[in-house]
What does this fold into?
Amino acid sequence: MIDVLYFAWVRERIGLPRERIDTNAATVNDLIAELSAREERYAVAFSDLSSLRVALDQELSDFDAPLAGVREIAFFPPMTGG
Amino acid sequence: MRICVQSDPFDMGTEANRFTQSATGAGAIVTFTGITRDSAAGDLAVMEIEHYPGMTERALTEIATQAMTRWQLTDCLVIHRYGRLAPTDPIMMVATAARHRADAFAAAEFLMDYLKSRAPFWKKEIAKSGTAWVAARDEDEAALKRW
It folds into this structure.
C-alpha cells in the first residue's frame, strides 16, 4: 500500500487530493503506467511527464526511482514558491 | 534559524525588528519581502497558494541549513504564507544576519532562488478575466545553476 498525493492542477485533473493504492509497481514510471491504464483522468494528468515533478517520502525524486520501502509519493507541477 | 509556514498574515516591520534585536554578533542584516503581484491584466482578485504540508517545512529547513553552512551567517529567517492572498499582501520574507554584508546579501539571494523552484508551493491566480495556475519560469530553474 502506498499513499499517493496530488497537488495543484494534477489534483484538479485527477479529481482528488490523495488516495491509498494497492500496487506492486517497482518504479514511479510503473505506477504511472498502472494508473494511466486504469482511468482516462490519470492518463490525461500523466500525459506529459516533462511538466510533472515527483517526490518520494517528501524528497524530490525521479520517474525511474524504485518504490521499494516508499510510503508516500506525490505528483505535482514545477513549484512556484517565493 | 527560524522557518514559519503559515496562513496568517505577518508584519514585515515587526519581523525585521525582532530578527534584528536577536542578531547578536552580526553587523549586517538583509531582508527581502515578496508581495502578491497583480495579474498582467491588472484584475487579480485573489492569489491562492497551495503547499505540501510536511515537505514544505523539510524543504525550507534544508535550504536554510545550506545557507547557514555556505555563508558566514549568524542567523536566518524564512516566512512563507499559504492560502488566499490579495494583491500587495506580503507572501513571504527572508532575512539573513552576518558579520559582513556580502554574506548576508549572497545568502538571501540563494534562499530566494531555491525557494522559487525547490519549495513545494503552487500559485493560482483568480482574476476577473479567469483562473490560471502560475507557470514556473525557465529563468528560475536556470538561476539555481549559479550556486
Summary: The beta strands of chain A are 2-6, 18-21, 53-56, 59-61, 72-76. The domain at 2-76 of chain A is CATH 3.10.20.30 (Ubiquitin-like (UB roll)). The longest helix of chain A spans residues 28-38. The interface with chain B takes residues 5, 7-9, 55, 58-60, 74, 76-82 of chain A (CB under 8 Å).
